[in-house]
Design brief:
Layout: H1 2-13, H2 18-29, E1 45-46, E2 51-57, H3 61-78, E3 82-84, E4 92-99, H4 101-109, H5 113-123, E5 130-136, E6 141-150, H6 155-168, H7 195-204, H8 215-230
Parallel strand pairs: 1-6, 2-3, 2-4, 4-6
Antiparallel strand pairs: 5-6
Helix pairs in contact: 2-8, 3-6, 4-5
Pfam family, one: DUF2927
Length: 234
């Protein structure tokens, strides 16, 4: 009897309150996970479609299938299209690299000093399994990204970390703790997007969330969209 009574209570405890959801979204969009770059001052997202993705390094059919599944999911949620392109192509906007950790420093050496320093900081973090860098020109338009995946990881680990990094590359860069299910927690191994993760992606790529909005403006838009979602049954 107690088990049956506790189940809806647990579900209610894991359902975010509107203020908490808005605050968390703001910290995810306008924060910097590693603290190695400038925190975004305005809403930034991809504004071209399709986005070219080039796969490099020690990829396998299984790893490519994992990445493709997440990319298809991003398209379903956001409407943004992707296409596979050859490495080195001028149309390669996202470089997805499966590398051993000792190989990653070679990537850093090809970057400008500030970006190289940021990437080196991530590479030297023994807890980091996958990580990304992205570039914006101007501040509201994401134009390029690199996603690095430790090639020694098991496929299940790649599944979880690729889900997170490919999601963050969309313009949701930060990890912030939360009491509801979300892949944006600092320590998380989600294999799929939660209802709230999908809401963040849909909100960011909603026509109402215009590139260049400052934090206050963006959170006003988010509050309206979140309130509508929270009004639905669990």
């Amino acid at each position: 009897m107690s088990l049956l009574m506790s189940t809806p209570l647990l579900a209610e405890e894991l359902r975010p309150q509107l203020d908490d959801l808005v605050r968390h979204f703001g910290n995810v969009v306008f924060g910097d996970e590693y603290g190695v770059g400038d925190a975004p001052g305005v809403v930034a997202k991809w504004q071209e479609s399709p986005i070219g993705i080039a796969v490099q390094g020690h990829s396998t059919d299984q790893l490519i299938d994992i990445a493709a599944r997440h990319i298809r999911g991003l398209t379903e949620i956001t409407g943004v299209q992707f296409k596979k392109v050859a490495p080195g192509s001028p149309n390669a906007k996202i470089d997805l690299m499966f590398l051993y950790r000792q190989e990653m420093s070679a990537v850093a050496k090809q970057l400008p000093p500030r970006d190289a320093s940021a990437l080196t900081t991530m590479i030297n973090d023994p807890t980091a399994r996958c990580f990304f860098l992205s570039w914006k020109v101007p501040n509201d338009r994401i134009v390029k990204a690199i996603v690095l995946v430790n090639a020694k990881l098991e496929p299940a680990e790649v599944n979880a970390c690729l889900l997170e990094e490919l999601t963050q590359v969309m313009g949701l860069p930060n990890d912030v703790d939360a009491y509801w299910p979300t892949l944006f927690k600092p320590i998380d191994s989600s294999l799929n997007w939660s209802r709230w993760d999908k809401l963040y992606l849909k909100t960011l790529y909603s026509p109402q969330m215009k590139p260049g909005l400052n934090k206050a403006q963006a959170l006003e838009v988010a509050r309206t969209l979140f309130a509508k979602e929270l009004s639905k049954s669990p």
